[in-house]
Design a protein that fits this description.
This protein has one domain (13-205): Metallo-beta-lactamase, Chain A (4-Layer Sandwich), CATH 3.60.15. Helices cover 34% and strands 18% of the residues. It has helices at 58-70, 85-88, 91-98, 173-189, 206-229, 235-242, 251-269; strands spanning 13-14, 19-23, 36-40, 47-51, 74-79, 102-103, 121-124, 127-133, 142-146, 151-155, 194-197. It has a six-stranded mixed sheet with strand order 1-2-3-4-5-6. Strands 7-8-9-10-11 form a five-stranded mixed sheet, with no helix packed on it. The mean pLDDT is 95.
Length: 274
């Protein structure tokens, strides 16, 4: 779920030795080219892990299943990065189509005996995924490190283009900044080189991109401080000043991020005049 959508188009396909993307047919200002459904498979294995089956679109879900089966494989596990419908609404139908469990942090969208927690390791025929909890965009957001490929599946925590929204009140900016800092440490260590996002194209330089996200958030906070100091008295007035570079159709969404920023400032710097 992004705030901006400019940039070259993306159509999905193979990205690493273990990951390929099937793009859902739900493009838009918030979803960029559509939701990325990631098909993960260890070379030589006939077992597949799917991350984010996407919206409840029978055509898309059938295309994922048919593509897997045409390659002589089957889906044995589905993972969700978070609960938003453009990532998770198709999970129940997909589970019925594949007879595969769905694991998620949020019990409301889980269809399995096990959920997900920080540090969990998923190993399917040598395809190893490590779970990293990354609240902020939503409280239940998680990322997955595809260990052998040094790739990070980020859902909406980091996008292929633009920046993500803090889905206030469930999302929190303090959590998001902490999550980005944790991902930056992973990238700095060399454990993560590439970002495989929930929307938009893969990002080849994870460390630079996550660093940009952190700088961008702190720059926005400073811009919000300036807007308040120069007379903004509603969240919309802050949006008009701070997010003037964002398409106006996305201003209602940007207002969610502003409210998260205002909460952050109020908790750390005292009451804000809104």
């Amino acid at each position: 779920m992004g705030e901006t959508s400019a940039g070259a188009s993306w159509a999905g396909g193979a990205v690493t030795s273990g990951a390929r993307c099937v793009l859902a047919g739900n493009p838009g200002p918030m979803t960029l080219d559509g939701t990325n459904t990631w098909i993960l498979q260890e070379p030589g294995s006939d077992h597949v892990v799917v991350v984010d089956p996407g919206p409840d679109d029978v055509g898309h879900l059938r295309a994922v299943v048919d593509g897997v089966e045409a390659a002589g494989a089957r889906v044995v596990l589905t993972l969700l990065t978070h609960r938003h419908p453009d990532h998770a609404a198709g999970a129940a139908r997909f589970a019925a189509m594949t007879n595969a469990p769905v694991r998620a942090l949020d019990p409301a969208v889980r269809l399995a005996d096990e959920g997900l927690v920080e540090g969990d390791v998923v190993d399917v025929d040598g395809l190893v995924l490590r779970v990293v909890t990354t609240p902020g965009h939503t409280s239940d957001s998680v990322c997955f490190v595809l260990v052998k490929d040094a790739a990070l599946l980020t859902g909406d925590t980091v996008l292929g283009r633009g920046t993500t929204v803090i889905a206030q009140p469930d999302g929190r900016l303090d959590d998001y900044l902490e999550s980005l800092e944790g991902l930056q440490r992973l990238a700095s260590s060399g454990a993560v080189l590439t970002v495989l996002p929930g929307h938009g194209p893969p990002v080849p330089d994870a460390q630079a991109t996550i660093g940009h996200y952190l700088r961008h958030r702190h720059e926005r906070l400073e811009q919000v401080r300036v807007a308040l100091a120069t007379g903004a008295r509603t969240a919309r007035q802050v949006v008009e000043q701070v997010y003037s570079d964002v398409d106006r159709s996305l201003w209602p969404v940007a207002e969610q991020s502003v409210r998260a920023q205002l909460d952050y400032l109020a908790e750390r710097e005292g009451p804000v005049p809104i």
